[in-house]
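I am still getting used to backbone structure tokens and would like to learn alongside you. To get us started, please write out a protein record for me. Once you have written the record down, we can walk along the chain together.
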Amino acid sequence: MAFSVNGSSGIGRRRSRTGGSLSEINIVPLVDVVLVLLIIFMLTAHVMEFGMEVNVPEVKNTQDSAEDLPVVSISRSGNIFLNEKPVNINNVGAEVNSRFKNPKAVYVRADKATPFDPIAQVIDALNTAKFQIRLVAKPEDTSARR
């Protein structure tokens, strides 16, 4: 496609001898901003901690499981979360059924400083809803004791 700028004829964009401006987009500032944001993200990505922090108790024997099941977490203060979203103890079974397709089992993880009463209530509510309950624990580090 040909067009003329300031009365000159030719193909493409040309700068006239009278000092007309070129109409091109300068992307250098955009690239600078994107690179700065990328560097900031790279520096802060390792600092961000995902998920709810629950210090589960340690046990000698643990079983590795790769199943993708709903996780009911109980914090130190007794707050109950279903996959990191707060849930009411009275609706925990219904919430598991509504958020997941036909779950047969549920992982229950509680902080080791949590009183047993909220844990027992969650286990009872999940038993009433006919779920298998799998308690989450982390393996005991036996190499540090030697």
Q: What stands out?
A: The helical segments are 28-45, 92-99, 116-128. DSSP finds three helices and seven strands in the chain.
